[in-house]
């Protein structure tokens, strides 16, 4: 029985595309706020709201990922194997 890949990896091209998309959208939002015909306090409010939205998205993505990993059967099996390996390991045991 083969073990499925427990941790799929993203390609470097996907990571670069995600970083570029994030930078472009953040720059576009900042430029849009800067060029709006508003007072400084209104621009500040929009900028702080945008920053809060970005940080909230990162937090939500991390929480969803952590919850999915915790519920994964493969993750729990691997964790149990690791705990068993650590429990059985005794560096002070003499070899006889």
From TrEMBL:
InterPro entries: YiaA-like, YiaAB. The keyword Transmembrane helix applies. Keywords: Membrane, Transmembrane, Transmembrane helix. GO terms for cellular component: plasma membrane. Coiled coil: none annotated. Residues 14-66 form the YiaAB two helix domain. It comes from the Bacteria. The chain crosses the membrane at residues 12-35, 41-61. GO terms for biological process: DNA damage response. This is YiaAB two helix domain-containing protein.
